[in-house]
Structure formats: structure tokens, C-alpha cells
Amino acid sequence: MKESRLKKVTYSIVALAVYQITVFVCNLILPRMILTNYGSEYNGVISSITQFLNFVSILRLGVAGATRVELYKSLGTDDNKRTSAIVRATEIYMRRIASVFVVYVIALSLLFPFFVHSSYSFLSIASLVFIISIGTFAQYFFGITYSTLLQADQKLYIYNVIQIVATIANTAISCVLMHFGFSIQIVKFASALIFTASPVALNLYVSKHYNLDKKVAPDNTALTKRKDVVAHSISNIVHENTDITVLTVLTNLKIVSVYSVYHLVINGLKQLMTIFTSGLESAFGDMFVKKQTESLYRNVILYDYLMSSFVIIIFSCAIVLILPFVSVYTRNVTDVQYIVPTYAYIAVIAQAIYCLRVPFLTVVHAAGHYKETKKAAMLEATINLVSSIILTYFFGIVGVGIGTLVANAFRTIHYEWYLSKHLLTNISFKTIIFRVLWVIITSGVIISICQFLIPLNNIQSWISWVRSGFICFIIAVLTWLVSSLLIYKTDLHNAYSLVVRMISHKRKKCAVRLV
User: Fold this and answer.
1) d(Cα 139, Cα 193) in Å, to the nearest integer?
2) What are the tens digits of pLDDT across the range 416-452?
3) Which of 226, 287, 453, 461 could share a disulfide with 292, CB 3.0–4.6 Å?
4) What residue numbers bound the domain in which 512 lies?
5) In Å, what is the CA distance from 103 to each residue of 49, 53, 99, 109, 151?
6) Considering the entire predicted model, what is its pTM?
7) 324, 313, 305, 308: which is closest to 265 by C-alpha?
8) Which of 173, 202, 224 is the C-terminal boundary of a domain?
9) Last residue of some domain: 203, 224, 245?
């Protein structure tokens, strides 16, 4: 018997929750160790190199997204031959990318040391570029194709389990090496070897559990359609990489280090958000294929309410607690000023706006409406890049924050409008805007209460920060709960019913069903 959508989504959420918590904790440990053992400049150069290596994803523009759409269809109809053909075509293409990536790494190793403002030698920086690239190469050559297959089949939790093991091993080994005084190059080489093992394990799982025909002729349907996904991929690349790239070129590596510390929090919030989105695009894609419009409508409404609630609770706490966190985290690191209040608030708000778009983005991608929304994607990328360059010249790190915020606001509004006009017309744009106003007002109340009741200036240790965070979280939850009971009582009841079903795995009828 096939696993239900709900069961698969539950597995995905649990596995991703454990993975994201693991990543968040490990990402707190390693940068702190790097800061204290090697200094802000090395922390900055590692962050910068990682982002520049991510630019190679331009070579696979649209492939993963277009492939998933085609796999939804073949997996939904149990067409193993076509699934094998799609996977085969994607695998061949990814291996071509891996070959080009090798050339890119060689060029980056030679050129990167010349355009960064660093006191370290050419050989030191060039060797880091090469070492850090090893893990990325393994992902392209071995991992991306099969992780895409698992995501389309609502089994991405398998990939997450593998990554949990790799992340813990990487943190443990890196900390031991730094404790004994090994160079940063040795530490990163050990990390590369560990993360190279992850895609190998993924390949072994897929080979054992999927009866893929390795000799089938490749089906390039998804690859020919990837041009419609290109705009979205470019937009995502710009969203993920513009800030550090602009800061690397226009400022210095210590400012990049400041940015990376704030984004320990921002990325942690983003990772936490993905816990609630895991498996949903594939579930929605399956609903589109089977034309289950009413079920899709009910679940999108619930998804939007849950994401809005997440933003209210988590991001309100983030605005209150981010500066005390950075202050405690960077204590005794004095080679650059890490407390930048304006940037902190802008960065948190920008990420909150991004999260609000996710329910609508998920539906658009699940429906395969890449072509219809690509102009807006390109405009977002342009707004982000141009405004970040101009504003960084005048305002430094605050400039990239403003650029990201403006671009995110534009694209979020577009996704909300597009879904209400073209995909689910029974969801009015006014209803969506009212939900956003609810988020803003409720968050403002939470922040005001927390700043009044919590002595933020007295937070001098992790114990006092955790204690203040607990108080802030309780205030946020209680305020959200009262607000939901007053305005969104039905949505609150539906959310509670769904959580109960996910825990019990029983097929009980409730107001909203993910079946």
C-alpha cells in the first residue's frame, strides 16, 4: 500500500526538523571556533568563497525545478520507464556541469585572491577555494539528481537523515582539528571529505530502493522546459548570493564576517521555516496532477495561516533578541564592530517578508507556472542587484539589507497577486493583504510588550539570553493565540486538527485534509 501524502509530509517535517536543528547548532559552533582561532578575516573569506562557488548553480538553471514537475507526473502514474528516462537525462546533464565546475574552480582559485581586500597570501586563499570546492563538486556529480528524485517522490527525509550524520561528523572532526591547532586548510579539507561521502550514500539508497533502468534512453523533456525556470533560478541565486558578493567587492572581508554572523540567525530562521514546507510542493504537485482543486484550496489557506503564524511568533522574537545574541556570540572578538542595529532589523524584516511569500511560491512551482511568472522573477533579481550595489556604496552593509528588503517585498506581493488571479481565484487578493496586516499589527504588539518587560540591556551571557528568549517566546505565543481566537478562529481549529492527525497518523475527517 502506498504511503499517504500526510504520512510522507510528516516524515519529511520530522526529519527536516532534526536536520535543521542540527545544522543550526553546528553553524553556531563552527563560526565561533573559526572567529576565536583564526579571526574575523578568515571567517569572512570562507563565507565569501562559499558564496562565489554557489554561482556555478547558474549552470543548472531550471533543471531541478523542471525535472521535479515532470517527475510528479511519472511518479504519480507509476511510470517507471519514464521516471528512469528523466533521471537519466538529468544525471547526464549534471555530470556535464561537474566538468565545467572544475574549470570554474581553477579560474576562481587564480582570480579570487586578487579582488578581495585581504592580508593573507595568494596561496592561502587559492588553496581554500580549491579545498572548499571539493564538496560542491561531489554534490553536482553525484547528489543533486537523486535528491531531486526523492523530493518529487515526497521522500526527501531520506536525504535529510544522511545530511544529519554528515553535519554532526563534520562539526566534531573540525572542532577537534581546531583544538589541536591545525590550519584552516586542513580543517576544511576534512569537511570536504565528509560531505563527499553524503552523495555516495544517497546513490546507494536510490540504487537499492528504486528500480531505475540505467540503460534507458534519456528523456530530455524536462531539460527542454528548463528555460521557463531559468528566471526563477536566477532570482534565487541573486537572493542567496548578491549580498556577500557585493560586500566582498565593495567593502572588506571583516564586513563580510559581520554579515555572516547576523546570517547565522537569519539562515537559522529560514531553516526553521523549511521544516514546515518540507514535502508540501510535491504534495501540491500531486494534487494538481490529479485535479483535486478543492483539497488544494483548503490546504493553501491553512498553509498561509500557519506560515503567517510562524512569522508572527518567530520573527517578533528575532527582532527583540538578535542584537543581544550577536553581542554575546562575538564577545572578546574585537577586530571589527559587530553591533549594527539598523542592519539587524532590516535583515530580519526582509527574511520575514520572504517567508510570507513561501505558500504562494510553493503553489506556483507545484503547478509548473514558471514561464508565466519569470518576468517578475527577473525584475526581482534586477532590483536586488542594482539597489544593493548603489546603496552599499553609500551605506555599507545596511545598503545590501535595504536592497534585499525591497526586492523581497516586490516579489512577495507579485506571488500573492498571481495566485489569487490565475491559480486559485477563490482566494481574493484583499483576503491575503488583510492577513499581512494581521501579521504586522500582531508582531508590533509582541515587540512592544517584550521591549517593555524584558531588560535587554542586561543580557550578558547565554543563560540570560536563553531566559529572555523563553519569556519573549511565551509572550509571542500568548499574543498570537489571543489574536487568532479573535480573528482566525476557524483557521486555528483547522491547524490544531491537522497537527493531531499528523501525530496520530489516523485517517480522521477534519475541516482540512491533506489527502
Assistant:
1) 12
2) 888 888 777 777 788 888 999 999 999 999 999 999 9
3) 287
4) 226-515
5) 16, 12, 7, 10, 29
6) 0.76
7) 324
8) 224
9) 224
